[in-house]
Amino acid sequence: MIALGCMPHGCVEPQWTATDTRPASVRVHGLRWAWLLLVALALVLASVCAPVFAGLPETPRPRQLTVADGLPSNTISRIAEDRFGYLWIATSEGLARYDGISYQVWRREQGLRDNYLWAVHVDAHNRVWIGTGQSGLAMLDTDRKTFRYYNRANTAGMGDDTVWSIASTPDGALWFGTQHGGLHRMASDGSVTRYMPREGDPRSLPSDGISNLAVAPDGNLWISTLAGAARWTGRDFERVPEHALSSDLVNTISFEADGTAWFGTPHGVGVRRPTGVTRPSRGRRSRRA
């Protein structure tokens, strides 16, 4: 129909107005079908989108574990995992094994000669090796009941009883670094060879203080020291150029899958590519006093 109206200032143009002349029952039936269509569309969208969201990884939620949870100390030096999935934790108050729920703790009462631990490492035979503050190198056998100790008093060639770092290489050798006694290689027969820096020899260790040991994807041993980093070549040591490090003190070395090495220092990182090319660190180089 057409409605024509006039206002105080004059008449307005004709306008069409729509009037639904269908019976009320028909209109209600049409609304029901509209709602059903919307619900069906929502279900289809949900079925399509759900797999997309289900495939997204859940955001990790860090959980802090402390002495309140059973740790012997909140000061953690190193962590290692054995072949059964247990985590071994070296702390300032003993050794802890974590199974995902609770801890088993070893202190002096359980056979440790020194509660202050610097390092922990699990070898290919699933033995747990521990670097202590003053009692040398300890080994917890696979039965997890007996400790064996290696120190200056009972092991020829060992130069220091403060063991800072431990690693094993594919040839079966166990390596451990000490605070002031250099780097040591223990062969499968238990014999120990000691390596020290030699003045004027660039193919020797940069320092007698070995802060960390790391094995690259190709099986080569890399050494972090208090005065630089180096790679064991099988005969001697290839030092990392000074310009690739922003500090003489190298705390850690990490590797990418292709063998790229990253050196962590108190003043930044350095990098060495698999080709041997190093990238100079930016910023002021710091020398350890």
Automatic annotation (TrEMBL):
The chain crosses the membrane at residues 33-56. Residues 266-289 are annotated as: Disordered. Keywords: Kinase, Membrane, Transferase, Transmembrane, Transmembrane helix. Residues 271-280 have a biased composition (Low complexity). Coiled coil: none annotated. InterPro entries: Reg_prop (IPR011110), WD40/YVTN_repeat-like_dom_sf (IPR015943). GO terms for molecular function: kinase activity. The keyword Cytoplasm does not apply. Pfam families: Reg_prop (PF07494). The keyword Oxidoreductase does not apply. This is Histidine kinase/response regulator hybrid protein. It comes from Lysobacter capsici AZ78. The lineage of its organism: Bacteria, Pseudomonadati, Pseudomonadota, Gammaproteobacteria, Lysobacterales.
